[in-house]
Amino acid sequence: MHESGSELGYTVGENSSEYFQFVLKPGCAIRRWEYVEISYPDHSIVGRVERIASRSDLLKDNLGYEGVERYVKNDINEIVDICTGSTLGTVENGKLTKSRYLIRPGTLVKRAGVKILTEIFNPPEEGALNVGTLIGREDVRVSVNVNGLRRHLAIVAQTGAGKSHSAGVIMEELMKKGASVIVLDPHADYVLMRQGEGGRSYSPFIRIFRTPLSTGRYSRDNVGIVEDFTLRFSDLEPDEISDIMGIKENWTNLRKIVEDMHSSMKGLKDLEDFMMSTEKIPPEDRKKISARIRFIKKIKSIFSTRTTGLKDYVSPGQLSIMDLSGMDQYLANYFSFRVINEIMDAKVSYDYEYPVFIFIEEAHNFIPPGTNTKISQTIKRIASEGRKFGVFLVVITQRPGKIDQDVLSQCNSQIILRVTNPLDKKALMDSAESISDAIIEDLSSLETGEAILVGEFVRIPIIAKIRERETKEGGGDVDIASLLIRAREERDRNISIEGDRERVKNIFGG
Ligand SMILES: Nc1ncnc2c1ncn2[C@@H]1O[C@H](COP(=O)(O)OP(=O)(O)OP(=O)(O)O)[C@@H](O)[C@H]1O
């Protein structure tokens, strides 16, 4: 790392309050996105290097190899390195404001110091969530402000770029602050969070719920205590029974039959009663509903003597992970709807005082554009009204182009990791004014774990390296090479066992 505060060069040519360019001091190395500082007696202007170019007026492209070699061998060096920077703002009395000062040619540019960068990117605020460090400046921590999550957060990137990792970091920080957090986890990416050295300190605050229908990507031995998310049949409305039976919302005939069966039931109304009630409906209806009845019988393990409720999964400082792995999407939708609808009801009626954060992994599967399912309606409602009641979304997706655009544009803060697909870039660009052309251009060149943070939770767009996780990750990339070594070893073991058997057979016969 280069010394902070060291001289880098002087401004040249035309400069403005937004952009400036400087000629680099010989021997100085600089990288794109590095932070620089122009100091005046009463304020400092902080900028970021956006472009680096090197120019020679002598070494023209028509010179030919020998010509260039002659200059180089005679040490004729008149190469000029020009850096173009954009101003991030002016720091005056420790406060960052938009820069309106003129930068004149011939002004000294220095590498930005730790102090000034820390003032900007990691201000000492109660609501600061520590998410990582500045790219190229591991000595400068970056935090985002929890109050900026008031208008929801989107975490967007192509697969493998670090969405779940980043979401886990935000969850850890929220737990430190005592937030109530719910995670809808269709691929069991978060169920190992209680494991590992760091995870153990969080484990008293993490509960994992799994419906008996979730296949569970990791066994209970790996995950530890997992609580069943169950339903008591008698707590269900006819509409919910239809949802569970996989009867679509517009299949009104079948829904009506379920309603008739439900209203013909007497007494306890458990699943057995419900199935018996097919006897009380006309034979043609019985025929129509028979396949769905067979289906609900197959999934009867989700029913129990108790419905898992709000008090189980919402509590101050608790992170509740809903492991939905292996479930059909419509059942995942039903359970997710149940959970977030109950949260919204409790918040609207002021039954739960504290803010609740709902993380939705693979959000494009819950709210694809143009759908009007109960889960999508509820998510849309939270996106537009949640902030009034203290319910905040963290929407995680690899397909910003394949998610309801209203919900995406209600997410006023965004963590964007590597994205290369042009359609997804366009969707991002359309979703927020704060995402400029320059940001979109940079998205393809981000490394795994590098992110652009934009919107209400930061003062200015930041390019950061998201910090290491303290809790254990699930669902990371598999190391194919080491797995193949194990596969070869197993194959060779099998071959040698076979060989031994063969030899024994030859010695003893048969
Ligand atoms: N900031 C980071 N620091 C270190 N490693 C990281 C970071 N971000 C991601 N990784 C690693 O990169 C791999 C992919 O990350 P992750 O699973 O979070 O990606 P993803 O975008 O959620 O992928 P998918 O869409 O497939 O779920 C993981 O092995 C993870 O540990």
Automatic annotation (TrEMBL):
Highest taxon above the source species: Archaea
This protein's record includes keyword Phosphoprotein: no
Location of the Helicase HerA barrel domain: 8-81
Record keywords, A-Z: ATP-binding, DNA-binding, Helicase, Hydrolase, Isomerase, Nucleotide-binding
Domain Helicase HerA-like C-terminal intervals: 351-453
Classification via CDD domains: TrwB_TraG_TraD_VirD4
Occurrences of domain Helicase HerA central (ranges): 130-340
Record field: catalytic activity: ATP + H2O = ADP + phosphate + H(+); Couples ATP hydrolysis with the unwinding of duplex DNA by translocating in the 3'-5' direction
A GO MF term: ATP binding
Pfam family, one: HAS-barrel
Keyword Transmembrane helix in annotation: no
Family: Belongs to the HerA family.
The protein, known as: ATP-binding protein
Protein source organism: Oxyplasma meridianum
